Amino acid sequence: MAALVAALLVQASDRTPFSSALLGTRFADKRAVLAGIALAIALGNAAGAIGGWLAAPYVSPDAADLLVAFAVLSAGVAACWPIRSRGVPQRLGAFPAALTAIGLLAIGDRTQCITAALAARSSTPALAAVGATIGAIAVNVPAVFLGEGGWGRLPLTPVRRVAAAVLIIVGAIQALAAMRLI
């Protein structure tokens, strides 16, 4: 559940839904776009969970908690900067364009870092990947159907600011708890 909520907050303040909206505008085959986005997000979160699982034996529980705090805090701070939309590959079909565009954004993104941190702390790291994937997809599906124009009309700046504030507050509380200061 933590990964799902974190992914919702991170994706609401991220470039990925902007790219999803662009893909939804550029391609008529929404199912292929959604399949490419879902696969890219799932692969990115799986890589994060595998990284966390591999790191877990070398990280103490307190350090794992601090790692989660750092990932959440850094996601909140990064959400404070405005988002610039970028183009999407148009020479490819809907599925490969979505897989490529979203896959490139997923490499080392904030959701993947939080997934890795939660997986390092969890006894079932796969659930971190599943939760983060569901949360990320839940934000990107409406973006595809709204398209560039519809997504751009949403009040995204206040949403991004609220998501940033929540992530920063939760990350700070997690950090203080990990250091046993609260």
How does this model look, in words?
With 182 residues, the protein is mostly helical. The chain has 8 helices and no strands. It has helices at 2-12, 16-26, 30-55, 61-78, 94-106, 110-121, 125-153, 156-178.
Task: Give the termini distance in whole angstroms.
Answer: 23 Å
Return Rg in Å: 16 Å
Give the percentage of residues in beta strands.
under 5%
**Main pleated sheet:** none
Mean pLDDT: 91
DSSP summary, beta strand count? 0
Morphology: globular
Secondary-structure element order, N to C: HHHHHHHH
Name the structural class: mainly alpha
The share of residues in helices is over 70%
Poorly predicted regions: none
Number of helices: 8
Summed up, what is this model?
With 182 residues, the chain is an all-alpha fold. It contains eight helices and no strands.
Compile the SSE list and pairings.
Layout: H1 2-12, H2 16-26, H3 30-55, H4 61-78, H5 94-106, H6 110-121, H7 125-153, H8 156-178
Helix pairs in contact: 1-6, 1-7, 1-8, 2-5, 2-7, 3-5, 3-6, 3-7, 4-6, 4-8, 6-7
Any key phrases for this structure?
single chain, mainly alpha
